Amino acid sequence: MSLLSKLFGKAPDRAVEIESSGDHFNVPPGTTILERALAEGIAYPHDCTVGTCGSCRTRLISGKVEAITPFGYTLSREELEAGYILACQALPKSDLVLDVEIGSSADAQAVRQSATFFNASELTHDIRRVAIRVDKPINYRAGQYANVHWGDGSVHRSYSFADAPIAGGTTEPHFFIRHVPGGQFTDRLFGGSLPGEPLELDGPHGNFWLRDGKGPIICIAGGSGLAPLISLLQDAANRRVRRDCILLFGGRGERDLYAADAIAAIRSAWTASFDYWPVLSEETNPQYRSGFVTDYVPQALERLGPGAQGYMCGPPPMIDAGIHALTEAGIGLPDIHYDKFTDASTGA
Length: 348
Ligand SMILES: Cc1cc2nc3c(=O)[nH]c(=O)nc-3n(C[C@H](O)[C@H](O)[C@H](O)COP(=O)(O)OP(=O)(O)OC[C@H]3O[C@@H](n4cnc5c(N)ncnc54)[C@H](O)[C@@H]3O)c2cc1C
Ligand code: FES
Description:
3 domains, binds flavin-adenine dinucleotide, globular, 6-stranded parallel β-sheet, 9 helices, binds FE2/S2 (inorganic) cluster, Elongation Factor Tu (Ef-tu), domain 3, alpha/beta, Ubiquitin-like (UB roll), Rossmann fold
């Protein structure tokens, strides 16, 4: 702290270093790490900016921060204990050294454009495959998501792309959308009021994609969380990624299982071993495993062998249980990637 700051009580700027990328910047008092990084033109991962999506998850290597809203709404106990913070909610209280994966300049920039609902088909009693049309082709990495805005455009909901990306992008992205009773957007979709309504789509967003590696892959999905995993696995199969994989899917009963054809196509194109383990939590059926999907993490990892990376998408409690099971089994947090499908009830 400078002598002037000490004398007049003005808090000093804090120096921030991102160890992995070598970026340096100063953060003035009252400014979050994310705000300052973006102002410096750094491709810091982010989306919601209000502490609910987890995109800006960052490991604090050294230094102190103050949280505007508690990180624990979004981060798991294991992440908090390992020093993870949310950059959009963190005010530096000392100089900081951070570890975060900064985006590459080759990544597609998010574009917001007008969109229309095109069609929807039933996948299960409460999940639909929905096509939305846009004018400009949208490019994304397998696993990413887009935000759909409606009404006056001030609110949005996030939906993960459900297909492998295609060269040149698509003007008709597909999403798997689950009905959340009482939900603002999905009540509209399932109530049939979306056709004809002007929408906007902005994306791509998110840092959920398949990392490089040679080790096996364990994928865990619940409900509509299968969408980004199908996209990721279809893309990996197209690219002839040669890594053993187990896809675990959790549903309450048999009626929650879907996308069997897409999973069978991935399995037949996969160049290493590929297993699909559906798990039912509320029905006993000799065809399927029963219990919670995350109960089968130890067994799957034993089958896959060491050096696995974990990929998960779905409801927040499933992700938290998955992080717990994967870390208990010895997988480090940097090898665990997920999108938590948070909704308006999460922070509340
Ligand atoms: C990165 C990301 C990717 C996602 N991808 C997908 C996807 O591919 N497919 C998918 O189906 N979903 C996905 N989601 C979830 C999706 O964005 C929506 O949150 C979900 O569809 C619900 O939206 P809604 O407007 O229908 O419900 P909301 O309006 O968000 O309401 C959800 C529930 O919360 C209740 N609620 C509202 N306000 C409060 C409050 N103050 N207190 C308590 N309860 C309240 C509502 O009654 C309702 O039951 C994703 C989310 C994220 C963050
Ligand atoms: S950008 Fe920080 S939690 Fe969403």
